[in-house]
Amino acid sequence: MTVGRVISLDRGFPLVKTAEQELRAQHSIELVKTSDLRAAVGDYVELDFPPGQDIPLITAIQPRGHTLIRRSLVESKHEGAGKHDEQVLAVNVDIVFIMTALAARPLDVAYLERQLVMAHESGADVALVLSKADQARHLDADLAAAQAIAFGCPVVVESAVTGEGLQEIRELVAGGRTGVLLGRSGVGKSTLINELLGAPLLETAAVRAKDRAGRHTTVARRMVFLPDMTKGMTKGTVPFVTSGSEEPSPCANPTVQQTHSLAPANNSPSLRAQAKPERGNLADQSTVLGSMAEVPLTVPSQLSALIDTPGLRSIGLYDAHRGLAAAFPDVIEHAASCRYRDCTHSAEPACAVQQAVQDGILPASRLASYVVIAEEVSG
Ligand SMILES: Nc1nc2c(ncn2[C@@H]2O[C@H](COP(=O)(O)OP(=O)(O)OP(=O)(O)O)[C@@H](O)[C@H]2O)c(=O)[nH]1
Ligand SMILES: [Mg+2]
Ligand SMILES: [Zn+2]
Predict the structure, then answer these.
(1) C-alpha distances out from residue 121 to 83, 316, 366, Å
(2) Given pLDDT bands bounded at 50, 70 and 90, which one contains residue 302?
(3) What's the CATH superfamily of 87-308?
(4) Considering 205, 212, 248, 339, which has the largest number of Cβ atoms within 10 A of its Cβ?
């Protein structure tokens, strides 16, 4: 039996990477008949190669670890009202990176809080990435605002231009972990992955000048494997690892916490190369964008992986109770002392959460965010 990992969905066909190759596969009829489960990006699947058939069959999907899901309640006027609509974004995720761009405007804290709920719901670790640090206008204030809602999750200040923060992100996925990048279109998700790969594998595009809105350049989720940093690879080397690499990574236990440095790190050759009309070395050895063709064959389970995602237009938080509690520990802390067990902390008497706001222990903005999100979670 061959086991591979689903790295993308290509017009309905899972694209699977095995130790030997990368191939399109399809679900076996047996699997389709006996289960509603369909392969998602990040799944480990068992493959069968029936003789005389071009496309291998997925005969089983291995049990999943942390799964990132977008779940929304179907609106009452639509067919299927009361049901929920579920989209599995990524599976077997060890860490969710929530990315937001530092820019002229202050951080959109409410949007970050929503993404934190969705990310925590998966049960995976969560990190905040404040991107485009080279363009930051209110770095200190934005960093403080992010740290105030992170509750122990690492906050990484990152720039693909200066290279700041890249090593911290590498360390957070080191040791064969899988990370997924979430964030609005244009924040620099694909650019960051290209920087970590040292090759412009994923397509990127400039944001709109007038409002910095992204262009939804990435249209499908896709997993890439990072160079094995234990092999002393240098930045700019296209990843290559042979199947026998078993040395433990020196950064297997990431210890990066709330780190940040204003000092410019080493310059980023690939982003600069992209910006210039005449392309540098890295661009020359680059690939047809959107193709995995030049990433050599590896044993996926031994390598750290990152999943690039399209900028989400909406975040579904229906039923994300665990995520809500994990993202709002400051609110939950007081809730146990409310008079009513099902207190919504909005208008009930003897509400300990509202009392905490009145006493100046809890910022009113946190309670306001919580109440709005809690309503969505409960549907
Ligand atoms: N100044 C600066 N520009 C950056 C940085 N990172 C990315 N960019 C630019 O931001 C633009 C958008 O980057 P992408 O990587 O395409 O953004 P994305 O998040 O993948 O966007 P979608 O695929 O649309 O979801 C590109 O022009 C990048 O060159 C950075 O750290 N600093
Ligand atoms: Mg992208
Ligand atoms: Zn209450």
Answers:
(1) 19, 11, 19
(2) confident
(3) P-loop containing nucleotide triphosphate hydrolases (3.40.50.300)
(4) 212
pLDDT over 60 at 36, yes or no: yes
| Partners of 100 in the β-ladder | 130
Distance CA 126, CA 150 (A): 9
CATH 2.40.50.140 fits 2-61, yes or no: yes
The residues spanned by each domain of the chain are 2-61, 87-308, 328-378
Q: Calculate how far, in angstroms, residue 153's C-alpha sits from the geometric centre of ligand 3.
A: 26
From residue 241, alpha-carbon distances to 5, 19, 32, 246, 277 in Å are 16, 11, 35, 10, 32
Ramachandran bin of 236, using left for φ above 0, alpha for ψ from -120 to 50, beta for the remaining angles: left
Tokens of 172: 């957070």
Q: Which of 28, 22, 21, 29 is nearest to 8 (CA)?
A: 22
Q: CA-CA distance, 371 to 162, in Å (whole number)?
A: 39
Bridge partners of residue 23, in order along the sequence: 16
Fold of 328-378: Ribonucleotide Reductase Protein R1; domain 1 (1.10.40)
190 in ligand 1 pocket by Cβ < 6 Å?
yes
* CA 152 to centroid of ligand 1, rounded, Å: 27
- Ligand 1 in contact with 213 (CB < 6 A)? no
Choose the residue to mutate in 191, 218, 307 for probing ligand 1, maximizing ligand atoms within 8 Å of C-beta.
191
Q: What pTM was estimated for this model as a whole?
A: 0.83
Q: Is 165 in the pocket of ligand 1 (CB under 6 A)?
A: no
> Residue 293: which pLDDT band, with cuts at 50, 70 and 90?
very low
